[in-house]
Write a structure and sequence with these properties.
Length: about 425
């Protein structure tokens, strides 16, 4: 170390011992990047199963307990509102203590919330249901924030693929969840609980397992390693280590954050609004829980399964081009849902598949834009703040969807969502003009 410049030597000495070997070795960094992806993938398989419960039977459970359709969107609104608070907390905790602490805590909280929903259903206790759905939302927020963990040590040309690798394996749990509605319902009934609480029993178990995977195996923490690498690089550039946060703030690309956040917010509103009321719409037209599980299962598969291909397309053709694709796909989804007969299982499957695919395009392109625009020193905090906006957008979409359908129709809701997605186009055009300026 005698040949190393003194400021760098001092910075290296200040780092925790587990991080030092990764800071000086690009090969170690590549190995940790691959290992991190595998651990995040494992957690996402469980996390996807937890995520599926709320979107599959949440509205139906509220409908049964409240006795009205007008508030059927409330569960989605509540767990997405809860996910907003959780996104902020998980982002701040991750920034301070690393991805491991933030993500594990978020998944554990989601598991506790899911268990509370089961208890509320057994007791027929509406206030407990609402409170538990808020806490359950922490799992939803964490499931989304986990996609960032794979990008901390990735190269800029790998970021969308890293995001997609984390997301695609969510499909296994997320598709299994809706298709286990009848199985978990029978298990719940056998235990003396309402059938619709069964998927939340699965969610409680799945979220806790996801948290344990991260808590036990995400070592060393990829975000802490990325921050340490950035600190050393900054010293090499002649900047003092105390300038970290201020320098990072200066290197934020604000138009990139704005466009990435807007793309994800709009896609979330459209997807949540239409998805939330589809099970209720199907039930009104004589379709049962099994058919609902098929439609939502295919929808969730379309949300996550194309991710590997989407990641390649986003890295190859750019964040903006895939944002355009998101808007057009969501429009097609809204039009199909609006004009499909209520008892047409095939057309509803097509509509919800397009809805999931459009969301997938928007989430991966928007997430990559956010990662591109933020340095490691403030990345998790910024990501958490953006995810708050996404969650609030979902809460708005979920709460308004029931009211729109109650006072108008499912077709009106679907058309409104489809045309709202076209706002993505002027946002992307503005972003390109900012780059040229």
């Amino acid at each position: 170390m005698s040949e190393v410049p003194l400021p760098i030597e001092a910075t290296m000495k200040s780092l925790p011992d587990p991080l030092k070997e990764y800071v000086v070795s690009p090969e170690k960094q590549r190995q940790l990047y691959k290992r991190t992806l595998l651990i995040v993938i494992a957690s996402q398989i469980f996390g996807g199963a937890g995520l599926a419960a709320g979107i599959t039977v949440g509205a139906l459970l509220a409908q049964d307990m409240l006795g009205t359709d007008g508030y059927a969107g409330v569960p989605t609104a509540l767990f997405t509102l809860g996910s907003a608070a959780a996104a902020l907390l998980v982002g701040r905790l991750s920034q301070r203590m690393g991805r491991r602490a933030g993500l594990a805590a978020g998944f554990m909280a989601g598991g506790i919330g899911a268990a509370g929903v089961v208890l509320a259903a057994i007791l027929d206790h509406v206030p407990l249901l609402f409170l538990s759905l808020l806490v359950y939302g922490a799992g939803t927020a964490t499931n989304l924030q986990a996609r960032y963990a794979g990008t901390d040590l990735s190269l800029p040309t790998q970021r969308a693929k890293a995001i997609s690798a984390a997301m695609v394996f969510t499909t296994f749990g997320a598709v299994a969840g809706p298709n286990l509605v009848n199985v978990t319902g029978r298990a719940a009934t056998f235990m003396g609980a309402p059938a619709l609480s069964g998927p939340f029993m699965l969610a409680a178990t799945a979220y806790v397992l996801a948290g344990l995977v991260l808590l036990l195996f995400l070592r060393p923490d990829p975000l802490l390693v990325a921050k340490a690498i950035a600190d050393v690089e900054r010293v090499k550039e002649g900047k003092s280590s105390g300038e970290g946060t201020r320098e990072a703030e200066l290197r934020v690309h604000k138009p990139g954050i704005v466009v990435g956040a807007t793309v994800m917010v709009l896609t979330q509103i459209v997807m949540i609004a239409i998805m939330t009321m589809t099970p209720v719409h199907m039930k009104h037209h004589g379709l049962g829980l099994g058919e609902v599980g098929i439609v939502i299962g295919i929808h969730v598969a379309a949300m996550f399964l194309p991710s590997l291909i989407t990641g390649v397309l986003v890295d190859k053709y750019g964040r903006m081009m895939m944002s355009y694709a998101s808007g057009v796909t969501l429009l097609l989804a809204g039009l199909t849902a609006a004009f499909a007969p209520g008892d047409s299982l095939g057309l509803l499957i097509l509509a919800l598949a397009l809805l999931g695919l459009g969301w997938n395009f928007g989430l991966i392109s928007g997430t990559a834009a956010i990662v591109d625009a933020t340095p490691p020193q403030i990345r998790a905090k910024t990501q958490g703040t953006v995810d708050v906006l996404i969650a609030l957008a979902g809460a708005s979409g979920g709460s308004l969807s029931g009211m729109v359908v109650a006072h108008s129709s499912y077709s009106t809701l679907s058309l409104a969502g489809g045309f709202l997605s076209l706002l993505l186009i002027p946002v992307v055009v503005w972003s390109r003009s900012q780059k040229k300026a």
